[in-house]
Amino acid sequence: MRLIFLGPPGSGKGTQSEFICKDFHIVQLSTGDLLRYHRKNGTELGKKAKEFMDKGELVPDDLIIEIIRNELKKKEYSNGFLLDGFPRTITQAEALDKLLAELNLHLDAVLVLNVPTEELITRLTARRTCPICGKTYHLIYNPPKVDGKCDLDGGELYQRSDDNEETVRNRLEVYEKQTKPLIDYYQSKGLAYFIDGIGKIEDIYSRLKAILDSIKKN
Ligand code: AMP
Q1: Residue 203 to residue 80: CA distance in whole angstroms
Q2: From 4, 16, 28, 31, mutation site for ligand 1 pocket: most ligand atoms within 8 A of C-beta
Q3: Residue 199 needs a FRET pair 20 to 30 A away by CA distance; which of 13, 38, 81, 209 works?
Q4: Which helix (H) or strand (E) is 80 found in, with range?
Q5: Domain total for the chain?
Q6: What is the DSSP string of 52-77?
Q7: Strand partners, 167
């Protein structure tokens, strides 16, 4: 299956992606994770992306499209993929359509996770991330077993530099202005599926899985 995960920052795309990819044997491709990897390794791309990311702005389309173009050609995605955090603008969505046509591939669904804004702010400012594996926790709703340490590898959890309240508010505004129009874009193609992103992590996943099972059957 080839899927796009659409939803504001903090809606739970990363958390739910893990379950989807495991159950449906596909690979997650998160542009945010890729950019953080480049920043950590001090690459040219990482240096260029930093100023945008720290303000909560989008990295320029041409840089992101180039990353996706290189990634999607890799063999590891041949069984399917889940795009998390891409596309984020109409220009990116059009570039993706073009790339998929070139590769003779089609999208199966665009999953849209709905969560109210105030809830997103609470979630993001209490989010902590593992620097080693990228797993995220919520200090209250989904805390690690040992305070400050990742359950999977013991990594020292940190707060992402763009998860402070001011930057979070900007990221949400950017989502409203630049990314939300993509919902109409994919709805007009008959690809959009809407999921209530409020509730327990496993309940949200059940909703997603029911949709994906029915798509897979048809
Ligand atoms: P995320 O981890 O998806 O919340 O992304 C973190 C930051 O990376 C965003 O606030 C942007 O600065 C940048 N970013 C990630 N994906 C994209 C994209 N598709 N287009 C532009 N910027 C992106």
Answers
A1: 24
A2: 31
A3: 81
A4: none
A5: 1
A6: HHHHTPPPPHHHHHHHHHHHHTSGGG
A7: none
Structural domain includes residue 134: yes
**Dist. CA 192 → ligand 1 center (Å):** 21
| 5 closest CA partner among 91, 105, 115 | 115
- Determine the structural domain holding residue 110 and report its residue range: 2-26+79-217
Mean pLDDT of the chain: 95
Give dist(CA 13, CA 204) in Å, integer.
11
Q: What is the pTM of this model?
A: 0.92
* Ligand 1 atom nearest to CA at 86: 19
**CATH number of residue 142's parent domain:** 3.40.50.300
pLDDT of residue 216: 86
Tell me if 31 CB under 6 Å of ligand 1.
Answer: yes
Q: Which atom of ligand 1 is nearest to the CA of 56?
A: 10
Task: State the Cα–Cα distance between residues 110 and 166, nearest whole angstrom.
Answer: 29
Q: Considering the domain boundaries, does residue 49 fall inside one?
A: no
Q: Ligand 1 center to residue 198 CA distance, Å? A: 23
